[in-house]
Amino acid sequence: MFDGLREKLRSVQEVFGTSIRAASPPPADTAPEAKAGPGLAERVKILVTDGELVLTERQIEAPLQELEMVLLENDVALPVTDEILRRVKEALVGMHRRIGESADAVILSVLREAIVQVLGEGFDLPAYIRGRERPVKILFTGVNGTGKTTTVAKVGDYLKRLGFSVVIASGDTFRAGALEQIGVHAERLGIKVIQHKAGGDPSAVLFDAVEYAKAHRMDVVLADSAGRFHNRVNLMNQLEKMKRVMSPDLVVYVDEAVAGNDAVVRAAEFEKLVGTDAVILTKADMDMRGGAAISIAHTVGKPIMFLGTGQGYGDLLPFSPAVVVDELLGSA
Length: 332
Ligand SMILES: Nc1nc2c(ncn2[C@@H]2O[C@H](COP(=O)(O)OP(=O)(O)OP(=O)(O)O)[C@@H](O)[C@H]2O)c(=O)[nH]1
Ligand SMILES: [Mg+2]
Known about the structure:
Elements: H1 3-22, H2 32-35, H3 38-44, E1 47-49, E2 52-54, H4 61-73, H5 78-92, E3 96-98, H6 103-119, H7 125-130, E4 136-141, H8 148-161, E5 166-169, H9 178-189, E6 192-194, H10 202-215, E7 220-223, H11 233-246, E8 250-256, H12 261-273, E9 278-282, H13 291-300, E10 304-308, E11 316-318, H14 321-329
Parallel strand pairs: 4-7, 4-8, 5-6, 5-7, 8-9, 9-10
Antiparallel strand pairs: 1-2, 2-3, 10-11
Helix pairs in contact: 1-4, 1-6, 4-5, 5-6, 6-14, 8-9, 10-11, 12-13
């Protein structure tokens, strides 16, 4: 995942490295002009104190601009790009770099830290469930075709493997084939599913699923919902009703990483209209750019819970900042 951005970031790191190395005073015996007076020192505006270099803003101006372009071109949201640049600049300008210390290592650690800071902490779902009264009720929302139903199945399988008992509520009574789709997943995974007839009120399905979970002392209710766009008032009202009836512990917004900045914008709209407690980004395996993964938590102000990394049930990665920076910059 994120192959395109990884390539671009690699070349930005090289540009930073070159700029930082250019700031190093050449060894005295090979650069007589360095001794000749303030000329060179003035030109690169560099202070050399006790074997250390102090980097100046001007020295990293060009690579910073390049980093900005790369982030924006790869769908990192503007405020998030600004935040990453601010952090990189703050860390580098005035930094005392020991002469001989690798410029590449310096920029790698600075870039790593800047991206980690905007990624947020993630959301530990098993820990959350263990700390709550059962059943823990989770409602999945989002626009059409992003992978909600598949994700409900994946999360069900993940939780079941951890020893939690799970019931799925088939809250998409709208799309043709939706009942069969979730039914097939549930059967394959050996998970109980609560379904009503097509065209029925999804709130009633969610209500029944919660009742079932209570009666059978189950740990978790996972409620699927039909895809809907945030500008469709009726459908958003329906979602509001589902929320009222189910009274979920968590509303999880699902979108696809490949949608880039659109996913970030939609996530913010859903958060505003119906609320969101955490985000799942699917199709990260098909995403070259990584912009949504980098931007969404910082923009929406809610943590990423999982990344979907394929079509199999096991293709679900609990999110942590290390997962993303390791993909982008290599492991530390
Ligand atoms: N490559 C890849 N494909 C995925 C992932 N998650 C879901 N898909 C695929 O995306 C397609 C749509 O998935 P669904 O789960 O039906 O999406 P949905 O959001 O429920 O769709 P609607 O109910 O119609 O709104 C399916 O072909 C899934 O296999 C993922 O992480 N990676
Ligand atoms: Mg669906």
